[in-house]
Design a protein that fits this description.
With about 270 residues, this protein is of the alpha/beta class. The chain folds into 2 domains: about 1-30; about 35-265, 3-Layer(aba) Sandwich (Rossmann fold). Helix content is about 40%, strand content about 15%. It has 10 helices and 8 strands. It has helices spanning about 1-25, 25-30, 85-100, 120-135, 150-160, 175-185, 190, 200-205, 225-230, 255-265; strands at about 50-55, 60-65, 75-80, 100-105, 145-150, 165-170, 210-215, 240-245. Helix 4 packs across helix 5 (about 150-160). It is globular, with a radius of gyration of 20 Å.
């Protein structure tokens, strides 16, 4: 009996250590960010402008605005949790060229050239700052909000509070707690989590045209999460696109992915001139 108690005591001690570690270091586990010096020079072929928007707590949020001469509209893009605009900028440039849209993309706090203390509500509201910038350039019915993975939580946060022209979600989750629980099922995640990003609660308030893309071999964010979001969406015009064989980070390697985007942006009633 003493031996059993000893083993249980050791297990309890290990559990406490892991719990404390997860609480204290969850930012590093969740946000796979890299930083860029403020004077870093990007090398894009398309015309673009660097943006530095100031939040209500005086943080500086950095973004890029790729511009077309006669754009069909604006795509406001929210990227995933890894890397910075040094990587994501090339994808924004491709979107802009392929669809003749202006594309606005930005880095979250602690990413790239963006600074500021990370706080959950403040981070989400940073997205509204860039949406307001987009509204100053184009009417809302011509603004597409596009969120990938973690960016889906930002995109749905913006879309539920505005009359956006359309919403695209790619490989995103219902809520971050469910994703974490798949791996750390033994931890009290609901108590520990400081960044409860959620798309499932947001999407129930979004009536705009909604389109969801997800690979059915995604081993990070299950395809079933996109199916749940699709079912929860009250949008009259909505569709889910399955990229057969697609994982979490390789959808751009599939022709079906581009076919889906072509259909969404060119054929599904998204804003066009």
């Amino acid at each position: 009996m003493k031996q059993v108690k000893k083993v249980l005591g050791v297990l309890a001690f290990i559990w406490i250590l892991i719990t404390v570690f997860m609480f204290g270091f969850q930012e590093k586990l969740l946000f796979k960010s890299d930083s860029l010096p403020v004077n870093y020079k990007f090398s894009f072929e398309e015309k673009y402008e660097e943006l530095f928007l100031t939040s209500n707590d005086d943080s500086k949020l950095h973004g890029l605005h790729f511009k077309q001469n006669k754009p069909n509209g604006i795509i406001l893009y929210f990227h995933g949790n890894a890397r910075s605009l040094n990587y994501w900028g090339s994808w924004a440039e491709e979107l802009s060229t392929r669809y003749n849209y202006d594309v606005i993309i930005w880095d979250y706090r602690g990413y790239g050239k963006s600074n500021g203390k990370r706080e959950f509500e403040q981070m989400l509201d940073d997205g509204l700052l860039f949406y307001d910038y987009a509204k100053s350039k184009m009417s809302e019915d011509k603004i597409i909000v596009f969120g990938r993975s973690l960016g889906g939580a930002f995109a749905t946060h913006v879309a539920k509070q505005n009359t956006v022209g359309g919403l695209i979600l790619e490989s995103t989750f219902t809520n971050i707690e469910e994703v974490i629980n798949r791996k750390y099922w033994f931890l009290p995640t609901s108590v520990l989590l400081k960044y409860p990003f959620q798309s499932d609660k947001n999407i129930g308030s979004i009536n705009t045209d909604t389109f969801i893309l997800h690979g059915n071999k995604d081993d990070l964010i299950p395809y079933d999460m996109s199916k749940e979001l699709f079912e929860a969406s009250p949008a009259k015009n909505k569709k889910i696109y399955t990229v057969d064989g697609g994982g979490h980070n390789n959808l751009r390697g599939f022709e079906a992915y581009y076919q889906a985007l072509d259909e969404i942006i060119k054929e599904q009633g998204m804003p066009q001139n």
